[in-house]
Specification:
This is Enoyl-CoA hydratase/isomerase family protein. By secondary structure, the chain is an alpha/beta fold. It is built from nine helices and nine strands. It is 48% helix and 18% strand. The longest helix has 20 residues. 33% of the residues are buried.
Length: 227
């Protein structure tokens, strides 16, 4: 479900995703709707509420065409100019885990458990595999991806898959939203892209785009380029 509220002076787009939700047109539409709202609002923040439902049974109606649409919706979320903050509690698996890995900042309740399983009980071979391998390295991702090993909140924080563990999730969201008030816009998207490409692009190939980003920042500091 998608909703909009205000935290301080910022417009916040809320999106709830459950671990047991089916990947299908309804869920994809919710993610696309949240992205569209964030794109329409100046300096928006997206808050993903990831709930701990048990994964449902295997979906015989799921097609590769639908999976492709789901992956593209997550990619759109991942590349927004807005900051995406994930708040996760209980079992985080399936689509909830995939959304967590696409977020910029991840807040975990103490009871959080991360697990790479889908309705079949097997690890799902979607783009979450690509994200987690890039974020923690292949060696650390191996048991998660191959065997669906479950991680506690503390273990996930140790790997850098979550940034903060707290029992007061609403307070953590408010604090992080306030702290990111200067980070929205195309500059955030540029830094995120540079970070995501760092492990796959050589220094020589990356140098030009990093210099261009630095030049943009210097021009803003001098007041010769609009933010």
């Amino acid at each position: 479900m998608t909703d909009i509220s205000e935290i301080g002076t910022r417009q916040v787009v809320h999106l709830s995703i459950g671990s047991g939700q089916r990947i299908g047109p309804e869920l994809i539409a919710e993610v696309e709707r949240a992205c569209a709202r964030a794109e329409d609002l100046p300096d928006a923040t997206v808050v993903l509420r990831l709930t701990g439902e048990q994964p449902g049974g295997a979906d015989a109606e799921l097609s590769i065409h639908t999976v492709n649409k789901w992956e593209r919706a997550l990619r759109r979320l991942e590349r927004l100019d807005a900051v995406a903050i994930a708040v996760a509690e209980g079992l985080c698996a399936g689509p909830a885990l995939e959304a967590l890995l696409a977020a910029d900042y991840r807040i975990a309740a103490p009871d959080l458990r991360l697990r790479f399983v889908q309705g079949t009980g097997e690890p799902w071979p979607g783009m979450a595999v690509h994200r987690v391998a890039n974020q923690v390295g292949v060696a650390r991702a191996r048991s998660l991806v191959l065997f669906g090993t479950q991680l506690s909140a503390t273990e996930a924080a140790g790997l850098g898959l979550v940034d903060e563990i707290t029992s007061d999730l609403d307070d953590a969201v408010a604090r992080r939203t306030a702290a990111t008030r200067e980070l929205a816009g195309s500059e955030l998207a540029i830094r995120r892209r540079l970070l995501m490409e760092a492990s796959a692009v050589s220094f020589e190939d990356a140098l030009g785009t990093h210099l261009a980003a630095c030049d943009r920042m210097l021009r803003r500091m001098k007041g010769t380029q609009p933010a």
